[in-house]
Specification:
Length: 267
């Protein structure tokens, strides 16, 4: 048992969440929906990284959401903060150690399509790792050759689309492109990304997906679209926009995730 799992089990001996969530920039409000929450600051969990991004709370919250026991990572550490793609390796291993089998990843992203504008939600069908980095570099054993075919579980995506339709939540679907950051992409890079088949771009999620697949977890990814890509509107991009627009999407994203979890609980 890892040190972080031991700390959690000492305080919550019966903790056995089967579902994990990771919340992206501006999306931390979703954690307020958790019932009977127990909070652990990342600084209190051995091996957990320290986030330097203002819109990430950096705490693990364990409780109940829509009838399911969940473990929520409210905030992530990005590769651009440390230069290391495995910044979230310990938190993901901790979720696995607690018994998490499925993981929902959320992020704030820039859209490459005018008809998927700010305020939209995009279900991630696949990703392109444009960073050139991988969180499994340095891991020993054959497990590091993680299978990334259907990394974003097709059956779970089909359920998500059915739930979104029932909840009258418009849910786009597309390929997410991971750029290292922290600077935003250039207009030329956005044009290239569209040519390569990306539908939205961001600075996270892909490392956690790779780590989750390494641990054998099912993955569902949802991007909250906070802006159009650089050069598409003529306006400058900013992290303030990411936080502000992300916050307005929380009610819609919350409704979708709560309904999806309720569907899972009923199966």
């Amino acid at each position: 048992m890892s040190d972080a799992v031991s700390v959690i089990k000492a305080r919550l001996p019966g903790a056995a969440p089967k579902l994990g969530l990771i919340l992206g920039s501006g999306l931390g409000g979703l954690v307020d929906e958790i019932e009977n929450p127990t909070r652990f600051a990342y600084t209190d969990l051995p091996g957990f990284p320290h986030s330097t991004v203002s819109s990430h709370a950096a705490e693990l919250v364990i409780g109940t959401l829509s009838g399911l026991d969940v473990a929520v990572l409210a905030g992530r550490v990005h590769a651009y903060e440390t230069g290391l793609a495995d910044a979230m390796a310990t938190p993901l291993a901790t979720l696995k150690g607690l018994g998490v089998e499925s993981l929902i990843l959320t992020n704030a992203a820039g859209s490459l399509h005018e008809d998927m504008g700010p305020g939209s939600l995009m279900l991630i069908s696949d990703h392109i790792n444009f960073s050139g980095r991988n969180p499994l570099i340095g891991v020993d054993g054959d497990g590091r050759f993680a299978n990334m075919v259907d990394a974003y579980d097709p059956a779970w995506r089909a359920i998500a689309k059915q739930v979104a339709e029932a909840e009258a939540v418009e849910l786009h679907e597309g390929v997410y492109g991971w750029f290292l950051g922290p600077s935003f992409e250039t207009p030329a890079e956005i044009r290239m990304a569209r040519t390569l088949g990306m539908d939205a771009v961001g600075m996270s999620t892909v490392p956690e997906t790779i780590l989750a697949r390494y641990h054998g977890m099912r993955v569902l990814g949802i991007s909250s679209i906070t802006n159009l890509g650089a050069g598409m509107t003529g306006d400058a991009l900013s992290h303030h926009e990411t936080k502000d627009v992300g916050a307005t999407i929380v009610p819609k994203l919350t409704r979708l995730i709560r309904a999806l979890l309720a569907d899972m609980a009923g199966r």
